[in-house]
């Protein structure tokens, strides 16, 4: 095999391993974690309010 073919095969194997690792089951849980990220410190209060409102709606809708 030439150098290009070997390099292509290594890339294919590496990408397959990355995809397979992403498909691992992990811990079984009914919880979903959503992470908010903002570089603006002044948005923290607003985001906290949005998160609290979202959590109230989710808890109400799942308890029915």
How would you summarize this macromolecular structure in one to three sentences?
Helices cover 62% and strands 0% of the residues. With 64 residues, it is mainly alpha-helical. The longest helix has 20 residues, at 3-22.
Kindly describe this structure.
The structure is a single chain. The chain is mostly helical. The chain has helices at 3-22, 44-63. The longest helix has 20 residues, at 3-22. The mean pLDDT is 77.
Q: What count of helical segments does DSSP give?
A: 2
Query: Structural class of the helices, strands and pairings?
Result: mainly alpha
- Principal-axis shape equals elongated
Element-by-element helix/strand order: HH
Spatial extent as radius of gyration: 22 Å
Number of DSSP strand runs: 0
Query: What is the overall pLDDT average?
Result: 77
User: Runs with pLDDT <50, length 5+?
Assistant: none
Alpha carbon gap, first and last residue: 62 Å
The main β sheet shows up as: none
Instruction: Please report which band the strand proportion falls in: under 5%, 5-15%, 15-25%, 25-35%, 35-45% or over 45%.
Output: under 5%
């Amino acid at each position: 095999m030439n150098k290009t073919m070997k390099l292509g095969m290594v890339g294919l194997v590496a990408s397959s391993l990355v995809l397979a690792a992403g498909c691992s089951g992990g811990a079984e849980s009914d919880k979903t974690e959503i992470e908010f990220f903002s570089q603006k410190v002044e948005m923290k209060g607003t985001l906290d309010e949005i998160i609290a409102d979202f959590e109230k709606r989710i808890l109400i809708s799942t308890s029915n």
